[in-house]
Specification:
This protein has 75 residues and is α+β, with helices and mostly antiparallel strands. It is built from one helix and five strands; from the N terminus they run ββββαβ. The longest helix is centred in the last third of the chain and has 15 residues. The radius of gyration is 12 Å and the shape is globular.
């Protein structure tokens, strides 16, 4: 696991644009993470959050946030 990122458990669903959003600390800076997923409110589990965390860490191996935003498509 990449300890350079600490993901907060503050997931919110944005119904209008159909994405989940949470915040994280990456190398001392706050970043916003947007996750486009078919998972709806009431369906989000700890397992989903863990899977997303793994995907975020994989993404960070070859990418950098743009304007402190990370966007992932999990559909």
């Amino acid at each position: 696991m990449n300890q350079a990122i600490i993901i907060n458990d503050d997931h919110q669903y944005h119904l209008k644009n159909k994405y989940w959003q949470c915040t994280a600390m990456l190398s001392g800076e706050k970043v916003i993470i947007k996750i486009y997923s078919e998972i709806l409110p009431g369906q989000l589990t700890q397992g989903n959050k863990f899977d997303w965390e793994c995907e975020i860490e994989d993404w960070l191996e070859s990418n950098e946030p743009i304007n402190n935003v990370i966007e992932l498509n999990m559909n």
